[in-house]
Amino acid sequence: MSTLTLSLLPETYVELPERELDERIAQAKRELGSRLVILGHHYQRDEVIKFADYRGDSLKLSQLAASRPEAEYIVFCGVHFMAESADILSADHQIVILPDLNAGCSMADMANLEQVEVCWEELTSVCGEGIVPVTYVNSTAAIKAFVGRHGGAVCTSSNAGKVMEWALAHAERALFLPDEHLGRNTGYRLGIPLERMALWNPREEAGGLSEEAILQARIFLWKGHCSVHQRFLPEHVERVRRNYPGIHVIAHPECSWEVCQRADEVGSTELIIKRIVESPPGSQWAVGTEIHLVNRLAKEYPDRLVVTLDDCVCMCSTMYRISPQHLCWTLENLVGGQVVNRVSVDPETKRWARVALEQMLGIGKAVES
Ligand code: 13P
Ligand code: SF4
């Protein structure tokens, strides 16, 4: 659980012209100097990410948060679970700020502690203690702490393969939270057949699973998803291949198994960027991930064709809540000695969530899966 004292953006910031906003953000950054570090996730809009000292996927940003103890303030341009991870991994004297506390993640909200405890009790009562919990970083601090307390690890889309492999080497079974698609895509890549992955639905009695289905499974997938990535469909892959013969399809592993099976490559935002950056001029890419990243890549590499896998604007509306107005207001408050929209995880949750995050950092070491 983290402390939330939501402060709302004052009216005076709403109408500020873009140029003035830019100047004021740059000025506040100068005044704060090395006391401040701004982290920006790849899905942030251009007007915000241009002010980030570091850009990255969830893994890279978690590591950066842990490696900058000199910065008094970490302003996280991303969503709530990312700011929580930064608070968990950073030193006690550091303050983490999410410019708009309403920037949540619908996937992270699909697993709450009570539901996960019920699931754990049910699964362990049927198949004993041989289960390791793994949670995607897109989860609340409370879920990460649960995983830490039960000997498991966090993973990101970059290292899910490594972490799942580690879990299955330590126990007969793994419980993967809260994204069924990342869990299924990762398990399948490790050679676990679909019929040995059981879907736990927290809204159904006993997760909707029979005892037999529980005993059959090697991986339990939590029924959660990303509403942005699940909009990509197999027919979009087929259509883009018809429209652009020879195009290379690359999808984020939060997309469904059916989409990932049809893609040429599957990977985190960091991997998607790397592939396009390293590709020769003239190459063609259809990308199954959030639209701000796809549009930025298309703009930055005009000698390559970069299109979205689906034209129906797959935008993460919560990432979009971080506006230049919120960033400006947050920074100007810091200059004036005021902290607004701090994300602070309580010490007990922090302790166990850190165990799970550090387990991941130990296993993954930033290797792309
Ligand atoms: P990455 O870790 O690939 O940046 O993904 C984070 C995320 O929220 C994707 O929806
Ligand atoms: Fe969450 Fe999906 Fe947005 Fe990523 S894109 S932050 S998983 S809602």
How many structural domains does the protein architecture include? 3
Q: What characterizes the major β-sheet?
A: 5 strands, parallel
SS class: alpha/beta
CATH architecture of the largest domain: 3-Layer(aba) Sandwich
- Envelope shape: globular
Mean pLDDT over the residues: 94
Distance between the termini: 30 Å
CATH domain class of the largest domain:
Alpha Beta
Approximate strand percentage: 15-25%
Count every helix, treating DSSP H or I runs of 4 or more residues as helices. 16
Hetero groups in this structure are:
1,3-dihydroxyacetonephosphate, iron/sulfur cluster
Total strands: the figure is 15
Low-confidence runs of at least 5 consecutive residues:
none
Q: What order do the strands of the largest sheet run in, or round the barrel if closed?
A: 7-6-8-10-9
At CATH level 3, the topology of the largest domain is Rossmann fold
**Radius of gyration in whole Å, from Cα?**
21 Å
Name of the CATH homologous superfamily of the largest domain:
NadA-like
| Helix content class | 40-55%
